[in-house]
Amino acid sequence: MSEVRKGYVRALDIKQGRVDMSHGSGGRAMAQLIEELFARAFDNEFLRQGNDGALLPPPGSGRLVMATDSHVVSPLFFPGGDIGCLSVHGTINDVAVMGAKPLYLSAGFILEEGFPLADLQRIVQSMAAAAKEAGVPIVTGDTKVVEQGKGDGVFITTTGVGVVPEGVELSGDRARPGDRILVSGTLGDHGMAIMAQRESLGFSSAIVSDTAALHELIATVLATDADIRVLRDPTRGGLATTLNEIAKQSQVGMMLQEPAIPVHPEVAAACEFLGLDPLYVANEGKLVLIVAEPDAERVLAALRSHPLGRNAADVGSVHADPQHFVQMTTGFGGRRIVDWLSGEQLPRIC
Amino acid sequence: MKYVDEFRDGGLARNLAASIAVEVQPGRSYSFMEFCGGHTHAISRYGVADLLPPNVRMIHGPGCPVCVLPIGRVDMAIELALRHGVILCTYADTVRIPASDHLSLLKAKARGADVRMVYSAADALALAQQQPERQVVFFAIGFETTTPPTAVVIKQAQALGLKNFSVLCCHVLTPSAISNILESPEVRQYGTVPLDGFIGPAHVSTIIGSRPYEFFAEEYRKPVVIAGFEPLDVMQAILMLVRQVNQGRCDVENEFARAVSRDGNLKAQNLVAEVFELRREFEWRGLGLVPYSALRIRAAFAEFDAEKRFPLSYRTVADNKACECGAILRGVKRPWDCKLFGTVCTPESPMGSCMVSSEGACAAHYTYGRYKNMEMVNP
Hints:
The complex is a heterodimer.
Chain A: H1 28-42, E1 63-71, E2 77-78, E3 81-82, H2 83-96, E4 101-112, H3 117-134, E5 138-146, E6 154-164, E7 180-183, H4 189-197, H5 215-222, E8 228-232, H6 238-250, E9 253-257, H7 265-274, E10 288-291, H8 296-304, E11 313-319, E12 326-329, E13 335-337
Parallel strand pairs in A: 4-5, 9-12
Antiparallel strand pairs in A: 1-6, 2-3, 4-6, 7-10, 7-11, 8-10, 9-11, 12-13
Helix pairs in contact in A: 1-3, 2-3
Chain B: H1 10-23, E1 30-36, H2 37-45, E2 56-63, H3 65-68, H4 71-82, E3 87-90, H5 105-110, E4 114-117, H6 121-130, E5 136-142, H7 147-160, E6 165-171, H8 174-183, H9 185-188, E7 197-200, H10 203-208, H11 214-219, E8 224-226, H12 231-247, E9 252-254, H13 266-275, E10 276-278, E11 281-284, E12 288-291, E13 295-297, H14 306-309, H15 325-329, H16 361-369
Parallel strand pairs in B: 1-2, 1-7, 3-4, 3-5, 5-6, 7-8, 8-9
Antiparallel strand pairs in B: 10-13, 11-12
Helix pairs in contact in B: 1-12, 2-16, 7-13
């Protein structure tokens, strides 16, 4: 008596296996990769619907915010995080700085043929953990595979959707003369953590990326009901670039006080060593706030009450300036422009 | 940061500024050239000029390796990368220098050239070891500070018997450039560049020592003060120069005694002498052909000389007609005297080399100081 056995599919060989072209072909191998790797890690009721798109309940009130961010960081793993959690934090932060409560994420993967499945699993699990910790589920996704040499391991694009309650008005054009400029902590940690990992630099350091989801810190600040004009996360281009963008949008000038700007001593030393300026180095877990002057103290206290805002500081002020310059009083006693970044300080850091 | 912040102390800066203000004689003007781009950068970044009396003027010199590199040498590097298919390794700023045919090394890279940014000559050598099937060329630029490391990798390549590593040598010499400026008609005949003294290089002098400047002090009657690259070093050097001028002295003084000796680093000097020899002449951007102002690789190391390994020829290329880099590098003009400055020539799309490197006079002024030429809001 012979019995036809049920179709048996060997489980993915996570330990030794590598991504191959069949994982992007739309066939069984792709279904298996999604099933065993992505769906298992990201599991939630919306993903379980198993359709081409996620069916989501409409938000009760408020306005929708949508933001997207592609991540091509190299190296993929760095002290303090990896491309997985970075891709979750980055998009949550883009939604949250609009004053929104982030609700859902999507994730698109471009994988390079030959990429180790073990590394992919590590990245996916890191993403899942970050999404879970933030309370923002990944509800839909996509995977494509490109031939070897046509990608750099893995690229991840995430899109986030959130809701801004009525009455919350944050925008880059709302800075006004007299406003204070606050930052939520030390600057340049992420960029220098990545830089220190580059093998060719040959120096080791204890600098750790600051990658973190900022929506709870932002909620704490918004709960003070203070007159907050602008929120931004100073990622690529650092604080200098973010402030120049705001100055241009709001048609104002700014004056920073160099001694007030928090920079981790190790970051300052590494920047010195490499000839970089921490004001231009990327952050992935920091907030820049432009706040009406009377409320600045209160907002600073709220920031400092949250673990992610412990080192928050008031670093300068907004003034009228038809040329929209960001200036800085240096610790040396002189004055200088803090200009837009020209060229590239670091290649591919987020 | 210990050992760094001490040299950027605002309180000490104000004290030095007060001393300078007391010692300068009213009715007399003081013009000092800081030779090095490192000093130019420090003066701009920390706003040193804001702390000086109006009759003390700083003139930016040609000591920025990227700025003085002539277009023809960059063209050679691009040709190596595009036509000869080599891996071209270079220090980062160099990739943005505008060259012929609207190219730069960065643009050549976008057209398929394999251009790598390295932090040291040793990185280029390591790359050659990792990729024995590819020819690797190190685009060696810079003054006496960067020359010894290039000598080291050439010797190492020889010891390792590498067949795929060579150097496009563009190393130049500080004293020849200073002589050239002092001999220029602007200084000697027309007096359009008033020069009362020099701030001597910091890092270069750690290698060559303070002795080579003694000639300038004696022969040309110009005081020289060698200074470190921190803003307080520069302020102190200015004070020392003011005193020399007031006392009618023309000495070589060493403010940077924590790193510079009279004889310099003899080991490095010997290494350089073993690997390199003087070129009869070399073209400098801004200064033109300067005799005995650059180095080439000695015959004993010819196989590591990219100019011998590949069929390359040098062609002089004129600057854009409106570009004033040449005059700016000689101290004849200032960045804002150039019609291109801040209009079509910006750090994003530099026309001339002074706008490329952060040590270039134009880039430093554009990035840190251009507000001085505008009506500024004082909050």
